[in-house]
Amino acid sequence: MKKFCLILTSSLIMFGCNQQMKYPDTKKQDVSDIYFGDTIADPYRWLENDTAQDVKEWVIAENAVTNKYFEKIPFRQALNQRLTKLWNFPKYGTPFKKGDRYFYMYNSGLQNQYVLYTQKSLTEEAEILLDPNHFSEDGTVALSGMSISNDGKYLAYQLSSGGSDWSEICVMNIETKELLPDHIQWVKFSDVSWYQNGFYYSAYDAPKESDVLKGKNEFHKVYFHQLGTDQSQDVLVYQDPEHPLRNFGIGVTEDEKFMFLTGTESTSGNFLYVKETGNDKAAFMPIYDQFEADFSPIDNVNDQIYILTNYKAPKYRVVAVDPKKPQEENWKEIIPENENVLEWATIAGGKLVTTYMQDAHNVVFINDLEGNKLFELSLPTVGSVGGFSGNKESNEVFYSFASYTFPNTIYKYDLSNNQSEIFRKLDVDFDPEAYETNQVFFESKDGTKVPMFITNKKGLALDGQNPTLLYGYGGFNISMTPGFSMGNIPFLENGGIFVVVNLRGGGEYGKEWHKAGTKLQKQNVFDDFIGAAEWLIANNYTSSEKLAIRGGSNGGLLVGACMTQRPDLFKVAIPQVGVMDMLRYHKFTIGWAWAEDYGTSEDNAEMFQYLKNYSPVHNLKAGVAYPATLVTTADHDDRVVPAHSFKFIAGLQAVQTGDNPTLIRIETRAGHGAGKPTTMAIEEMTDIWSFVMYNLGMNPKF
């Protein structure tokens, strides 16, 4: 017999009908916008007001339904215990040296935040320099950035609260551990660059209280702060009142001889200016004054600035620029573009270290300063290199390496003889020899060859019945290279397959690969992801009833778009902190900077129509059986505001047909993901994997 629901829009929270789930019945309002003659309803617009009482009550009601659902999952507590055990081992960051001291991050196991340690030699006992765990009882105040002065005397560190992108800067005397009175607020999207007895940073004017977490970020400014002075005395170094939607920053070379001014309009492409320090009246000289290419200064060599760029080189190259003659005709090419993407470069020990992506994994070469290849760094397996830290004149370098079945390991490397030795190996409760990772290539809808990594227990039976999680991102020139995650171990241990697909829109094959997944080509990203799922099914790895998909941020958009386009293809969907309303994303916080990838609904009629056709919020249809869905977001996410997830789940719950649950998990005192305390991270992974395993019909043992 057909069931009917009474919908009373004048009341905030009542319970609607779904065959097995009862959800808060979210009120609808008569709100709409007109785009190029097309009227678009936005009945859940009120959920954008994150500080309103009715929104707070709605959040409580939604979390209550979700928590009640989690309580019925029989293995959830055992999974939580397994994850807690997996997390509980000493974890080290890659060491680096400033002045006469080494510094590194360390977590004893289950500490909510990593602690900064220092030591004068690698053999003496290290001491705590800064412990963020003392900044809040619940661990939600995190170290979001730090910079040590070039003489090693001072530490400037950034703290963020509740996962917000906003941060404040504090300063410590490293020798005495004395906290100085210097305190800077409303810092955002900023590094700290030391120069003499002060530093450069970037900030916004203080926002209205109601706009702190959702207001549009405009008029970024660069300041210089002199130690021992109040923030009100900081010198405004650069601003651009004619272009409110740009971000700026200043960097200084290791020897403090040159400084760089960079400016961006989006997440890719920047202008770059340079000048010698010591003359405040000297003007910055333009090296590149457009936004069509990326320019990243590496360091200076004999008064030549080495720069990593994809200008006229979609897969990047290194050029040397004379600051006194910065015009393009005077550039000298040091490392030319080749068939692989040059991901990053650094100068250490008088050599130029270059790291490439070769089919989405790293290879590293050591070159002389003229660009001649000296040798290749030997790596343990196919994986990713990170944290390559070393000073310009020192042969001592540290780097980390990891892969899907290779826990993060830190190496000490002697540049003079090309010798690496394990410096710290993490003791994870995991047997790498029992698992394997294979890279495969498949053809997407338009014939493009796309790679993906498949990780599973050895001896996997290709019977089409393996529980599988497919993960992707596909945007902003970001590459998905192999990494290790404790959180994935329980799924792998119980016969799960973990798959990462390298979608267009990322940076795995350079700028052209990135551009092929942007604006009017964004559908390529979704086609790649759908193609990966179809390949896994066609090759008997799994089936639609055993397939889950997951992604965060732009990857949350990916999951939202794919589950609305192909709801039949997936059993479970986990869109995390996703960009779900593609018609209004640019109106909040830093959303305007994503227009280079997405375009906006206000650009022109064609762009509006394209966005509307895949926007997850606008493509939910009544009468469709969508996958079992767990949306995750957080109340302090000021990167992708939670309204995206709120509006999507409200619409999904209103139209869902069938027995699959559609839930939202709204974390409090958390943000987009950075700085999340260990306790929250474990709880979140517990809920995600519980939901996935339960809805894939797994009976895991821990």
Assign the CATH topology of the largest domain.
Rossmann fold
Mean pLDDT across residues: 95
**Number of helical stretches of at least 4 residues:** 10
Provide the helix percentage: 10-25%
CATH class assignment of the largest domain? Alpha Beta
- Radius of gyration using CA atoms only: 25 Å
Oligomeric state: single chain
Distance between the termini: 41 Å
Tell me the CATH architecture of the largest domain.
3-Layer(aba) Sandwich
**What is the percentage of strand-forming residues?**
25-35%
Detail the poorly predicted runs: 1-19
| Biggest sheet layout | 8 strands, mixed
Q: How would you describe this protein?
A:
It is a single chain. The strands form nine sheets. This protein has an eight-stranded mixed sheet with strand order 32-33-35-34-36-37-38-39, sandwiched between helices. Helix 2 packs across helix 10. It is an alpha+beta fold. Strand 5 and strand 6 (115-119) form a beta hairpin. Helix content is 16%, strand content 33%. It has ten helices and 39 strands. It has three domains: 32-84 and 430-695, Rossmann fold, CATH 3.40.50.1820; 92-335, Methylamine Dehydrogenase, Chain H (7 Propeller), CATH 2.130.10.120; 338-427. Mean pLDDT is 95; it is low at 1-19.
